[in-house]
Amino acid sequence: MYSIGLDYGSNSVRGLLVRCTDGAEVASSVFDYPSGTRGILLDASRPSLARQHPGDYQDGFLHVVADLVDQGSSLADFSPDAVVGIGVDTTGSTPLPVDAECVPLGVREELRDDLDAQAWLWKDHTGHAESLEITALAHRRGEPYLRACGGTYSSEWFFSKILHCARVAPHVFDAAHSWVELADYVPAWATGVTHPDDIVRGICAAGHKAMFDPRWGGLPSTAFLAELHPGLAALRDRLYAVAFPSSHPAGGLAPHVAEQVGLPPGVVVAVGGFDAHHGAVGAGVTPGTLVKIIGTSTCDITIAPQGGTAVPDVPGLCGIVPGSVTPDAIGIEAGQSAVGDIFAWSAEQATSADFTGPDVHVALSKAAATLAPGESGLLALDWHNGNRTVLVNTRLSGLLVGQTLHTRPHETYRAHVEATAFGARRIIDRMGEHGIAIDTVVHTGGIADKNDVVNQIYADVLGREVRIGASGQMCALGAAIFGAVAGGAHTDVASAQRAMAAGTSRTFHPDPDAAATYDVLYVLYLTLHDAFGGVDTDDPAGRAADIARVMPALMDLRDRVRSGGSA
Question: Which of 30, 206, 362, 482 could be stapled to 243 by a disulfide with Cβ–Cβ 3.0 to 4.6 Å?
Answer without folding.
Answer: 206
